[in-house]
Every structure is written in C-alpha cells, then in structure tokens.
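SsrA-binding protein
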Amino acid sequence: MAPRGSQRVVNKIVAENRKARFNYEIVDTYEAGLVLTGTEVKSLRDGKANIAESYASDEGDEIWLINSHLPEYLQANRFNHEPRRRRKLLLNKREISRLRAGINREGMTLVPLKIYFNEKGRAKLELALAKGKKLHDKRETEKERDWNRQKSRLLKTG
C-alpha cells in the first residue's frame, strides 16, 4: 500500500482559460487562494470546472471571482452549492493594492488563467493583470504561431 502523501498529484490543473493568452497581453501574474465550500472542492477534484468566461472584480477591499462555473457535486444532494456564485479570492493587502492600481490607473483587466491544486492540496487560482489586445495584435500572434509551426515541421523533415 502506498503512503498517503504520494497519492496526491502536484500542481494538478483543474481548469484553464486558454483564450486569455490570445485575447490579452499578460503583464503580471499572481497566485490567489479561493474561498470554497466543501462540495465545491469535491467538484473541483472531479475536474469539471470552467473559467473561460470568468473575470475578477475589485469591490471594496476584496477581489472576487465572478462567473466561474463549478458544477454541483452529485453526491451532495440538498447541501450543494450554487454553480455560478461569486467566490472571494485570498490575496495580501499589498497585492490587492497593486492590482487595484493596475485596474484604475492603467485600465487593465483581471483575468483568471487557471485553477489548480498546489503541493499542500489547496485550490489556487492563477490571476493575471492584463491589457486587451487589438485585432491586429491577435492577427500578429496567429501569424507568429503558424510560422513557428511551419518552422518546426521544416526542421523535422530536414
């Protein structure tokens, strides 16, 4: 029988926002904790979360994750959670003030990149301070990606 600690998968990514890197220019990233209920954690461990349409908002002295979807945990019956409820993010006051400065002064956006479990088994959110890309920037990104793909094919065939 394996020891209890070895069964854990380190940094298991539960949900990822892949469109964020295409739609936004990432300036800075932060790791934030999530305030979750027990059924939300169990639902996350099933790996069915979705943060593609979610964003973070600065309200008062707190940062909130809005519009993320954690489906209900099927075995929880009446003690279940609401799938699209707002979830509080746990950050230091210094980090919150930096994020607030980026939002207010520079017109940036808070975009969630991924939800994962760290080494201690805690659910964490990778949050990015980002600038929105214009249409020509997106085209440039797509051209660069296609060129890199072609370049790797050419180097393989030699």
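thats it. Residues 11-132 form a domain with the Small Protein B; Chain: A; fold (CATH 2.40.280.10). The chain has one domain: 11-132. bye
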